[in-house]
Amino acid sequence: MPSKRFNKLPLETNKLNPETIDSILSVIKSNCTTKFDESIDLSFRINNKQKKNEINLRTVVNLPGGTGKTIKVAVVCEDNKTDEAKTVNADIVGGDELVEKIKNGEINFEKLICTPSMMIKLSKLGKVLGPKGLMPNPKLGTVTNDISKAVTEAKAGQVEIRNDKDGNIGLSIGKKSFDDAKIIKNYNAVIEALEKEKSNLTIKGDLIKQVFITSSMGVSYKLKMDKSF
Predict the structure, then answer these.
(1) What is the Rg, in whole angstroms, of the alpha carbon atoms belonging to the chain?
(2) Which of 191, 149, 150, 200 is CA-nearest to residue 173?
(3) Where are the alpha helices (DSSP H) in the chain?
(4) Residue 229 above 80 pLDDT?
(5) pTM for the full model?
(6) CA dihedral in degrees (43, 151, 97, 145; nearest 10)?
(7) CA neighbor of 114 nearest in space, from 135, 85, 144
(8) Which fold has domain 17-67+158-222?
(9) CA-based, 20 to 30 A from 200: which of 27, 47, 148, 206?
(10) Would you state the pLDDT for residue 1?
């Protein structure tokens, strides 16, 4: 059963007309009635069911305002790259010994970055890393020789954009404690990333069907987009 706190939130918000993000943020924040700093979350429904193939989006976006979360980053690299990784505050750094730990199920990180030459060894661990969404990917910038850039961006506010089989994309763009301008900047960065991805796809009609915004423990509202794409 819903809690007393949840029962005090607005009802049937799905029936309201869509609002722009700058006009609805104050409402979203007013619904953050828990004791912790709730996340501000987006949910996209994309037009992934095409006649010839399904659309599978997978990319990353650097949120200019950050995420408000601390990300634990692991780096698998050669010995001559370990100092570089440690200098930019990678949490876990190693070579063959780290690969072996991962193989044995020791996964105490949220982001995995590796150099191209080490990817050969990690590629054998698809059954371990794949289901957790941790397998490094060149397209996502997690297979690279530029360890400094990859770790810095991961810790600064980089998030992955990926749709599920039903065409849904979910991600956080900040916290209740963020000022509105920071959240709006993050939102715009996500929209720009999706626009860029659409230009690389063969798709009939708009890519985005609907967008919703909510807080971690709040209720959802439809967002009105400035334009269709």
Answers:
(1) 20
(2) 191
(3) 4-7, 21-30, 82-87, 96-103, 116-122, 126-129, 147-156, 180-199
(4) no
(5) 0.90
(6) 110
(7) 144
(8) Ribulose 1,5 Bisphosphate Carboxylase/Oxygenase (3.30.190)
(9) 148
(10) 63
